[in-house]
Design goal:
The protein has helices at residues 6-59, 80-90. By secondary structure, it is mainly α. The radius of gyration is 28 Å and the shape is elongated.
């Protein structure tokens, strides 16, 4: 989508340097660096949460042998409530 070659980036940097001047360029660089750091932190947190959710889903597969009668409060597709409609439609 944003396909910037190194030459294009250099031209953009030179234009920004000429427009802003040497006084404001360090301030802009600091603000840009902080913004990039904040985005990296946010994306890292989002990635960690997604990995955690995927790990939790894959670590606790639903019991299909019926030995999990202790409950647990989870509703999955393998629960007896989900199987009732199949049993009643076969009668």
């Amino acid at each position: 989508m944003l396909d910037f070659s190194p030459e294009k980036m250099l031209v953009i940097f030179l234009i920004v340097a000429v427009v802003l001047g040497p006084e404001k360029l360090p301030e802009l660089s600091r603000k840009l660096g902080r913004a990039v750091g904040e985005l990296r932190k946010l994306s890292g947190g989002f990635r960690d949460e997604m990995n955690k959710a995927v790990h939790e889903m894959s670590a606790d597969p639903p019991s299909t042998d019926g030995s999990g009668s202790g409950g647990g409060g989870e509703i999955t597709s393998g629960t007896p409530a989900a199987g009732r409609s199949d049993e009643s439609s076969g009668s």
